[in-house]
Write a structure and sequence with these properties.
The chain is mainly alpha-helical. Helix content is about 55%, strand content about 5%. Among the domains are: about 40 residues, no CATH class; about 80 residues, Potassium Channel Kv1.1, Chain A (2-Layer Sandwich), CATH 3.30.710. The protein contains 19 helices and five strands. The strands form two sheets. It has a three-stranded mixed beta sheet with strand order 4-3-5. It has a two-stranded antiparallel ribbon with strand order 1-2. The longest helix is centred in the first third of the chain and has 14 residues. The N terminus and C terminus are likely disordered.
Length: about 300
């Protein structure tokens, strides 16, 4: 800590007791000959350790949080300082401000223990097994730094089989940065993700934005069409009205003409949905017409892969 000390070469240090001077010399910054600025950056750790010891000793605690069958003795001021949720509870004129025992809903006792340990020690162990519960509890009680830590953990843990679940979790807790990262992952790994059963649970808006991306990684457009139809059929009664909405971002003109006639136009759901007919007509014009018409009917941007396919 010696590098925390700045000494003036022109003015002497204030006269202090030798022992005191030795202990404090690592913590002071001299600003003038007769003034000392004492900046003890380690005091915050001393305070935190002291508060943790008080909690463990059940000393000066003034509130008991009741979760399931367990009771946790805490200090209102510590909870309010760490969490906006508890700040609102204890600093406003709510009944909990005066109650000795408070029943906490929406979290299990084990997760509550983790939150309190984090509050008093700054440490928490996040694992694949507990990250969802920790994130949900941290979001509920507004431990914002813990929420960020869980989001970072989930970003690093992205995999084709779990990305849709993480996407839905991020959406539930309004974690916009995590949602964007998951969406980018799905776009870049679309060929692997679409084979996972969980992909069929993806919300319509996320599917729409995924298919809309110019960076969507697929080997052929037929994969995109089949993905849309599988998604619709998974919950057909609910999703059939959304077929024109999601099919809009399938580049139908880039399908093989024979595949288009034998598979797309022959599909029973397609035939039952008049709202998709303009999209089918666009594809027909593309397949039957020359370059001038193609410039008109392919206004939607193409990826580099699609463009290369178009030039063949």
């Amino acid at each position: 800590m010696g590098d925390m000390v700045e000494k003036s070469s022109e003015e002497p240090l204030v006269s202090l007791d030798n022992e005191c001077s030795r202990k404090m010399g690592e913590l002071v910054e001299v600003s003038s000959g007769d003034k000392v600025k004492f900046d003890d950056t380690g005091l915050s750790m001393v305070l935190q350790n002291g508060l943790e010891n008080l909690r463990l000793e059940n000393s000066l605690t003034d509130v008991i949080l009741c979760v399931d069958s367990m009771e946790f003795s805490c200090h209102r001021v510590v909870l309010a300082a760490a969490s906006n949720y508890f700040r609102a509870m204890f600093c406003n004129d709510l009944k909990e401000k005066y109650e000795e025992k408070i029943i906490i809903q929406g979290v299990d006792a084990k997760t509550m223990q983790m939150l309190l340990d984090y509050t008093y020690t700054s440490q928490v162990l996040i694992t694949k097994q507990n990250v969802q519960k920790v994130l949900e509890a941290a979001s509920l009680f507004q431990f914002l730094r813990m929420v960020d830590a869980c989001a970072s953990f989930l970003t690093e843990a992205l995999h084709p089989e779990n990305c849709v679940g993480i996407l839905r979790l991020a959406d539930t807790h309004s974690l916009e940065k995590l949602k964007q990262q998951v969406q980018s992952y799905i776009i870049q790994n679309f060929a692997q993700v679409l084979h996972c059963e969980e992909f069929l649970e993806i919300p319509a808006d996320f599917l729409y934005n995924t298919l809309k991306s110019d960076d969507l990684y697929v080997t052929e457009e037929a994969q995109v069409f089949e993905t849309v139809m599988n998604w619709v059929r998974y919950k057909e009664s609910e999703r059939f009205p959304l077929l024109p909405y999601v099919l809009e971002n399938v580049r139908l003109p880039l399908l093989d003409p024979w595949y288009f006639v034998e598979t797309v136009e022959a599909d029973q759901l397609i035939r039952q949905c008049p709202d998709v007919f303009p999209l089918l007509q666009e594809a027909r014009m593309y397949h039957l017409s020359g370059n001038e018409v193609r410039m008109i009917v392919t206004e939607r941007p193409l990826t580099a892969a699609y463009a290369a396919y178009n030039q063949q």
